[in-house]
């Protein structure tokens, strides 16, 4: 099942043109990823293992603006796991009409403070992350 996070656009999210500032979309996407991990991931296990999920790349495509009072829904799913990375696909849509505001592909890696670079995603780590993958009919 696709994970969703709902956010109401407030005045402090806006730029001088009355649109959500592009940097705020990154915060909205991050909030939705944290919600996914809190609700479906096992954050306590990651913390016990001293593992951190870090963003190594974000490809965001802006489609249309969101403005004051809009309620937006961020759809979030782990799309795939690769050798040292995973790709989270996110889509921001307006709740009132379902129009796409932005889409993003977020590449994540897993790091440990005692290890240099991204860890191999294998074993228990692969199992726990793999539980977040959502198959779609697309």
Brief summary:
By secondary structure, the protein is an alpha+beta fold.
Top keywords for this entry?
Thiol Ester Dehydrase, Chain A, alpha+beta, 36% strand, 5 strands, five-stranded antiparallel β-sheet, elongated, 138 residues, 3 helices
State the helicity in percent bands.
10-25%
Strand order of the largest sheet: 1-3-4-5-2
The N- and C-terminal alpha carbons lie at a distance of 14 Å
Indicate the structural class: alpha+beta
Largest sheet: 5 strands, antiparallel
CATH level-four homologous superfamily name: Hotdog Thioesterase
> Helix and strand string, N-terminal first?
EHHEEEEH
Low-confidence stretches: none
The count of DSSP E runs of length 2 or more, i.e. the number of strands, is 5
Rg (C-alpha, Å) = 16 Å
CATH top level class name: Alpha Beta
| Count of all domains | 1
Could you describe the 3D structure shown?
The structure is a single chain. The protein has one domain (3-130): Hotdog Thioesterase (Thiol Ester Dehydrase, Chain A), CATH 3.10.129.10. The two termini are 14 Å apart. A five-stranded antiparallel β-sheet has the order 1-3-4-5-2. The chain has helices spanning 22-40, 43-48, 123-130; strands at 3-8, 52-62, 71-81, 86-94, 100-111. With 138 residues, the chain is an alpha+beta fold.
């Amino acid at each position: 099942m696709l994970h969703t996070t709902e956010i109401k656009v407030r005045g402090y999210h806006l730029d001088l043109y009355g649109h959500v500032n592009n940097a705020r979309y990154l915060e909205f996407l991050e909030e939705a990823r944290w919600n996914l991990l809190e609700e479906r991931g096992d954050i306590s296990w990651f913390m016990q293992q001293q593992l951190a999920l870090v963003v190594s790349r974000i490809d965001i495509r802006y489609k249309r603006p969101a403005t004051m009072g809009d309620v937006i829904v961020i759809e979030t799913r782990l799309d795939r796991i690769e050798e040292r990375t995973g790709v989270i696909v996110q889509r921001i849509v307006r709740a009132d009409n379902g129009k796409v505001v932005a889409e993003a592909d977020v590449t994540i890696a897993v790091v440990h403070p005692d290890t240099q670079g991204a860890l191999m995603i294998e074993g228990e780590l692969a199992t726990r992350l793999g539980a977040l993958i959502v198959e779609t009919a697309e």
